[in-house]
Amino acid sequence: MTEQSPSFFSRIGLAFVVFFRTLFDAGFAASLRPLLSGAATVEEPETPAPVAPVLLETNPASALQLLGLLQQEGRLVDFLEEEVAQYTDAEIGAAVRVVHEGCRKALHEHLTLQPIRQETEGSRITLEPGFDAAAVRPTGNLVGEPPFTGTLAHRGWRAVEVRLPKLAQGHDVQVIAPAEVEL
Amino acid sequence: MSEPRYSIGVDLGTTHCALSYVDLHASEGEVVKLELCPIPQLTAPGSVEERPLLPSFLYLPHPDELAPGDLILPWIQEQPWAVGYLARDKGAQTPIRLVSSAKSWLCHAGVDRRAAILPAETAEEVERISPYAASVRYLEHLRQAWNHMHPDTPLEQQELTITIPASFDPAARELTAEAAQAAGFTHATLLEEPQAAFYSWIQTSGGQWREQVRVGDVILVVDVGGGTTDLSLIAVVENDGALELHRVAVGEHILLGGDNMDLTLAHAVAQKLAAQGTKLDPWQIRALTHGCRAAKEALLSDPELDSVPVVVPGRSSRLIGGTVRSELTRDEVTSIALEGFFPVVQAGERPKVRARTGLTQLGLPYAQDAAITRHLAAFLGRQAEATSDLEGFASSLPEGASFLHPTAVLFNGGVFKAELLSERVMQVVNGWLGAEQASPARLLEGADLDLAVARGAAYYGYVRGGQGVRIRGGTAQSYYVGVESAMPAVPGMEPPVHALCIAPFGMEEGSAADLPPQEFGLVVGEPVRFRFFGSSVRRHDEVGSLLEYWDDEEIQELEAIEATLPAEGRAPGEVVPVRLSAAVTETGTLRLEALPRGGEERWKVEFEVRK
Q: I need a surface site. Which of A140, B100, B274, B527 has the fewest CB within 10 A?
């Protein structure tokens, strides 16, 4: 409650009003009972309606675009959609070179990635109170108050810049890779 | 025109173009603000991205091949062609619609450069375009890209420099200048690529270059691009206590570059696979070529590696099942790239020339000898006298030296990212020097192998504004017209031709040669052809000198020139005596004019680039 407490003189006025209304107005008197017994307030303050949680719908266009780039440069979709059981590790390894080289090139061309923590993985680091829980995730024996000290298991990645190609109006991003017909 | 804000340099390469610029307002003395301008372009249908380079490829799509909007650019809704990455990628799958190496065609004297001849091998219905028009489209794209990104400082109002191979003949220079004009580069200057590379080296050193060269140095610039090898010599002289640079010689046009090496390696690997029963399609050969380039760079930079795997994906969606694996071994890369293109040869060796058959003229005149070191030996041998006129150089070459002794070497071109190749060139050159008791040449360090030409071009525009050291050069050839000698006709024998010098060696930009005393009779209204010659070694011929005899080593025939006198004020058929005047324009092109006796008129004499 941010309302200021009433002054002594305004309280005298209030006391008289309450005295006479209680004496002559039965309904008012009845509404005072729970107040005096501490069970409720006189007027229910309007509780704000609970905020409905908002989950953002992401735009699939850029996701499909990036997938298209990874396919175009590194054949990622072909690789993931292929049944690997029938192949030897050497055969899969050869294909992985294509995927790794191409996807890495596409990744570096379109995103600037940086590790979130600069320390070497395996080293001890301390998370100060107020650390960014979205960027650093404490795990394991998570009790007590920060600062937390623990071992850096993974440095994390942050995309500090995204450079996706601009698309023509009406460009069909659902086409990850067009079918090719050699004439 | 308002004061230019930027000096823009364009590397109009055989395989890639690049754009860089110096902010003239933010540069002072040796503190130069030089940037590379990324080039927005189509990287996939309907998908536009900025990339540092613009591949010099033009694709002419079939009308039904692409969806509407697929050829969009930030500055134009649609045009019926694509340049850049998309063009290169589409062209790999449909080569009959791809124009590539337009620059090499631009200086191919065997074809009409203004005729729609590209793609060279295509179907009847594909609308071809000329090498000239292709160059216009690349430059037009670069202009639009710049103007899109710098709307307040349009390109046509900036200081502009376009690079060309040092070995470009006057006709190819003229065509490049005209293409630039047509593409909206209103007042561009031409700069030779090896010079641009050297300017970039100067700029990168931030003033330290003076510590690395000294008076008396002869610097050999070896520039091996994707498709051409370009050689130049720059001498360091002293003038009034300051260092001065003179470009004293340029090499011949050699159509031989890094792409040839990668292709040769790819074919070697393809043969290995064929022996195992795996046949690659053209699409896979291209992927293999990319793989071989990367493998070559790795093997020639890291002596620990014995082999590098090269994998080529199949084209179907079965990636693992379709991938072909092979490897490039150290032995292969050494024998093919190193011994094939940079063999250890003697200074006296010369490129092997095979007799050409008529058929080879249909394609590009690729160098017949792949050994760059032999071309280098020929260049230094031919230019043994290149510095003899420079003050302080007269005694620098020992008696009996068989070639010009360079004292330092600057490399340019992505090929030399493979360090073993630059080491090999140094080893070969120093071997030649050692054999003539000369000190070994130094390697000039710190070159930016990929982008030096574009960077140097932008820096050159800044230097032209009066800042920093400028390389003096002038024309690297003297020029002659063929004159039929007055000799009684001998049946079955052509009258011998004499060569009349009309432009001396080393004419600087913006200067004109003296008028030769000889006159020619031109028929009004009728085109008259002259045979036209150039020499990169005859440094002492003056205007008016008449050569009755020369050997093919000294003087090369260039495209013919053609003069047509307009009929205005004269009767058609009248014979008018004219003299031929030569000048070098500020742009850097050779301008030939016919001056009628006793008149003020000047008529342009054209290079006959049409056949």
A: A140
